[in-house]
Amino acid sequence: MKLGRLNHIGVATPDLDASIAFYRDVMGATDVTEPFVLESQQVRVCFVNTPGEGGTAGTQIELLQPTVADSAVGKWLERNPLGGQHHICYEVADIHAAKAWFESLGKRVLGEPRIGAHGTPIFFVHPKDMGGQLTEIMETPKEAH
Amino acid sequence: MKLGRLNHIGVATPDLDASIAFYRDVMGATDVTEPFVLESQQVRVCFVNTPGEGGTAGTQIELLQPTVADSAVGKWLERNPLGGQHHICYEVADIHAAKAWFESLGKRVLGEPRIGAHGTPIFFVHPKDMGGQLTEIMETPKEAH
């Protein structure tokens, strides 16, 4: 596998609207996407766009608020009530090839590929197999034609 | 303040060489900088370069291994023995203006600006004032002439 683009850093928050205000008013973000509910992950989510090199799109901050306390992100927030860095997400060209790659190395892939917040297939790999980082692998979105 | 480039994600590790091997052999990184000791932070450090959009330089992964157990990163690893995401670092144009900005908002800036791993001045802001994220602010390196 070849290292892909660092698509986003997932940041959990107990209050999505307060986090959006923080990124706008404290950090100076000018481009934050409209929040929506991603039912498959039981989260309300939006993206803070950060500037990349030379006017390109940089790595995003994905803000995540659980919609249900008894969910993966809800339980994480119980242990980290202020919120914080929850996961890291890399792009790959082919999600099924990536799943086979991690599995061939004995890494625990958490479930089958499913559609993520960017509309392309994703899966997560267990943090205990990834240097303590919950790692999301997402298929790079195809450009619109 | 205007949101700057997401320069790097700081990832703490109990074994820098094993982490470099992980990024190379599992994640497929092809560009990892030579490790060096950053005395001011009591860490041995290197950077994994990730590809940005359109061939630009992406957000880096900064791997950090404490050189002393009784240090900031050493104590963090005691609580998180596998390692994991330790901090997030944004670039700013002017480090002193950024310090004044965060202080004017009542954010706890941890010490005076000092030279960081990229050779430019940096400071950290307390995670409890930043949505649970230890946040590094660094002055953007000047281009070589």
Describe the model.
Two copies of one chain form a homodimer. Chain A is of the alpha+beta class. Chain A is globular. In chain A, a hairpin with a 4-residue loop joins β2 and β3. Chain A is 19% helix and 34% strand. The first copy, chain A, folds into two domains: 10-85, Roll (2,3-Dihydroxybiphenyl 1,2-Dioxygenase, domain 1); 87-145, Roll (2,3-Dihydroxybiphenyl 1,2-Dioxygenase, domain 1), CATH 3.10.180.10. The first copy, chain A, contains three helices and eight strands, in the order βαβββαβαβββ. The interface between A and B is large, with 45 and 45 residues.
- Class inferred from helices and paired strands of chain A: alpha+beta
The level of helicity of chain A is 10-25%
What is the multimeric organization of the chains shown? homodimer
List the secondary-structure elements of chain A in sequence, H or E.
EHEEEHEHEEE
Looking at the structure, the CATH topology of the largest domain in chain A is: 2,3-Dihydroxybiphenyl 1,2-Dioxygenase, domain 1
Quick one: biggest sheet of chain A? Answer: 8 strands, mixed
State the domain count of chain A: 2
CATH-level-4 superfamily name of the largest domain in chain A: 2,3-Dihydroxybiphenyl 1,2-Dioxygenase, domain 1
User: What's the total number of strands of chain A?
Assistant: 8
Strand order of the largest sheet of chain A: 2-3-4-1-5-8-7-6
- Structural Rg of chain A: 15 Å
Silhouette of chain A: globular
Mean pLDDT of chain A: 96
Uncertain stretches of chain A: none
Name of the CATH first level of the largest domain in chain A: Alpha Beta
Beta-strand content of chain A:
25-35%
Distance between the termini of chain A: 27 Å
CATH architecture of the largest domain in chain A: Roll
